[in-house]
Amino acid sequence: MTTVLCGSISALPSPLGRAMHEAGYAALGLDFVYVPFQVADVAGALTGMRALGIRGFGVSMPFKRTVIPLLDALDPLAERIGAVNTIVNDGGRLTGYNTDAVGARRAVEELFTPTDRRVIVIGAGGAARAVAFALLEAGAAVCLANRTRANAEALAAHLAVLTGRTVPVLDLEAPPPAVELVVNASSGGMQGVSAENPVPAAFLDAADVVMDIVYKPIETALVRAARERKKRVIHGGRMLLHQAAAQFELYTGRPAPLEAMDGALEATLPRA
């Protein structure tokens, strides 16, 4: 039996994905291994994926839109969102998927049902597209905000076409409305990008719950600021877990052993 190789392509690899996926393989007795690759040449990485028969790649920021023209096909959800975080290799044919959307929704649903909740999503890249789309599809009222307002306006227009819902754009320098949830879906706060909290204090004060999708590090400046304000917090590991479980099922064709994967995540967080 041939060992099946999966992995991730990222500018800054993390041990968390490997820990979760390999715990899942072990729980089901699957002959799979998972390797996180640090990549600068995305096109070269995908050429290598085909040549080496690598079964699956997770795709991290900032490559979630870059990979799209390099693929053979897109899953309908990834095509609608316009961002890919998962690539599956079927005999050299590479198909892009988006499991960030389901990951974001399930992370939020650990605390509450998004339907009819008021949400602000900060960011306008590939991850923000997935998060905002998932919450809109779940029935939330979503506003966008971004450091570059024009990018948020372009994303709001894209989401309005996809969902038929109006998506207001807020100014990060202006006081926001009261909301149930603020989500940082940008790379702000990520190791190697910026150590600063990308969410203004007024936005933190306006929310009941604060979610950060950044997981490198898991204890971001935003997470610390939210906890200091006694907010309920969803750290980046929760979305990471649920999107990884969906990836696992695409790679293996088996239901993800979520308890084993969650245990591995929690055990690895202190070292990550």
Write the layout of secondary structure elements.
Elements: E1 4-10, H1 15-28, E2 32-38, H2 42-52, E3 56-59, E4 73-74, H3 76-81, E5 86-90, E6 93-97, H4 100-109, E7 118-122, H5 126-137, E8 141-145, H6 149-163, E9 169-170, E10 179-184, H7 201-206, E11 207-212, H8 221-228, E12 232-234, H9 236-252, H10 258-268
Parallel strand pairs: 1-2, 1-3, 4-6, 7-8, 7-10, 8-9, 10-11, 11-12
Antiparallel strand pairs: 3-5, 5-6
CATH architecture of the largest domain: 3-Layer(aba) Sandwich
In CATH, the homologous superfamily of the largest domain goes by the name NAD(P)-binding Rossmann-like Domain
Mean pLDDT: 95
Return the structural class. alpha/beta
The portion of residues assigned to helices is 40-55%
End-to-end separation: 33 Å
Task: Describe the main β-sheet briefly.
Answer: 6 strands, mixed
Strand content: 15-25%
Shape: globular
Domains, number: 2
Short description:
40% of the residues lie in helices and 21% in strands.
Could you explain how this protein is built, in words?
- With 272 residues, the chain is α/β, with parallel strands linked by helices.
- It has helices at residues 15-28, 42-52, 76-81, 100-109, 126-137, 149-163, 201-206, 221-228, 236-252, 258-268, and strands at residues 4-10, 32-38, 56-59, 73-74, 86-90, 93-97, 118-122, 141-145, 169-170, 179-184, 207-212, 232-234.
- α1 (15-28) links the parallel β1 (4-10) and β2 (32-38).
- The chain is globular.
